[in-house]
Amino acid sequence: MDKRSRSERVVTMTKILCSNPYRLFSLGYxxxxxxxxxxxxxxxxxxxxxxxxxxxxxQVVTVAGAAGGVRYIPRLGKAAMAANLERLAQQLAVPExxxxxxxxxxxxxICDPAVAAWIGEAFATVFAxxxxxxxxxxxxxxxxxxxxxxxxxxxxxxxIRDEGKVTEGSAVSINxxxxxxxxxxxxxxxxxxxxxxxxxxxxxxFMKAGGTARGMQDLMAEFHAAVLGIGxxxxxxxxxxxxxxxxxxxxxxxxxxxxxxxxxxxxGRLVPAFARD
Amino acid sequence: MDKRSRSERVVTMTKILCSNPYRLFSLGYxxxxxxxxxxxxxxxxxxxxxxxxxxxxxQVVTVAGAAGGVRYIPRLGKAAMAANLERLAQQLAVPExxxxxxxxxxxxxICDPAVAAWIGEAFATVFAxxxxxxxxxxxxxxxxxxxxxxxxxxxxxxxIRDEGKVTEGSAVSINxxxxxxxxxxxxxxxxxxxxxxxxxxxxxxFMKAGGTARGMQDLMAEFHAAVLGIGxxxxxxxxxxxxxxxxxxxxxxxxxxxxxxxxxxxxGRLVPAFARD
Lengths: 277, 277
Known about the structure:
- Two copies of one chain form a homodimer.
- Chain A has two domains: 6-74, Orthogonal Bundle (Arc Repressor Mutant, subunit A), CATH 1.10.10; 78-267, Rossmann fold.
- Chain A is globular and about 65 Å long.
- The longest helix of chain A has 16 residues, at 38-53.
- Chain A is 34% helix and 27% strand.
- A six-stranded mixed beta sheet of chain A has the order 6-5-9-10-11-12, sandwiched between helices.
- Chain A is built from eight helices and twelve strands.
- With 277 residues, chain A is of the alpha/beta class.
- At the A-B interface, helix 1, helix 3, strand 4, helix 6 and helix 7 of A face helix 1, helix 3, strand 4, helix 6 and helix 7 of B.
């Protein structure tokens, strides 16, 4: 393989690094792959790093030392974050999305892999310094967003179910109150799905009163997990007081008028890169 | 930006192409991005294409003509497919995964973004020539695999629910028989989730008798959809006769002995790149 040009080598390096966010690759890995000297690999990686600096979507970071190497970290810049959120807000704020009962139809966007991917990168950007072991969500609509967040953070996803499943073995289940409907509901997580004492990030699509997020927190306590953060795609302005204290929302649903089919979204809460107006 | 070197330009091109499988980028897109001439972009793309040829995970393909351009197509080579499937089979065939009742615990692997990503690329490879408009799955465990398949094919995912949801508006629901338990169950899909007459690929994690897949086929008929293929991660050897005729499974569960906790998996059905022994 040593006949490859630098340009060809950096293409392969970029593909490998970007396909495996946060995974550390030693210089030896690339030396072996290309049959090149360490100095050549270092120069190649310098090119990759420089080219990525302009990209506004991620960085290639070098870790020094014997156990060191290089990794790709997805990180949306302010401009990319703002542009993506504004586009999403526009896509959501259309009369056709108002569902009888006063709901906002979002499933098509959540299930679009390209949209889910950048939302995952947005959460990975916001929570980058929390260093979770797992991204935890609850079925069903949180899954695409949580999976892409987990991908961008280089960690596994864990899915809380509505009830214990026979296919997953013994489970811990709790009851919780859906904050908006006041109904008692159940959520369950298989014992084998999450080791005790893990560091977790909670991701979901929507938060109204925060009852589900609160339930997830309580369930995580059963696993002695440390909840490092809660992220939702959309939170509602009302009720102002949620059942969880600390959460991040990318967008805030300020108004949804079922009668007039009027929807108004604005920038979310606690997103440093996309400050409130 | 015209001060960039070729090596830096191809890094950015690779990142953009690989992040957007199947999406067609015109040469003009890159000419504008880098402020370079068409001939330069063509030469850059030739480098990217050449470097990718060795990768065994995907190709960069040029589409000629006025509406042409270049796109990245994930495509696992025989070696990559075989190696990935063998590793997954080994990870699954361990006694600890046998769940009382005779089930195989797979949720952790399905929820690992890196595993889900290559499974998605495997399905995209197998079904590449079917050209679906949508990848359709049913909640819950099919979702990570379907999302990554949809990502690798550059199309949206659609999730069939266990019942109609108030947050998704009017739905079409059908009853179906779970082939293995013979229980009558319901599945539902919001009308707005899928336009009539779409070309769809069905993806799920597991198939025993095929009742769920059959139900999905029936529900798709209600939407006048053309089912181009059915793909499951694991199918069971027994029953030999499934309720659907034509499906692809990546792995086949030949034995699961609950008493002795013995699991045996072998290569699946109809995967050209990983032929049956």
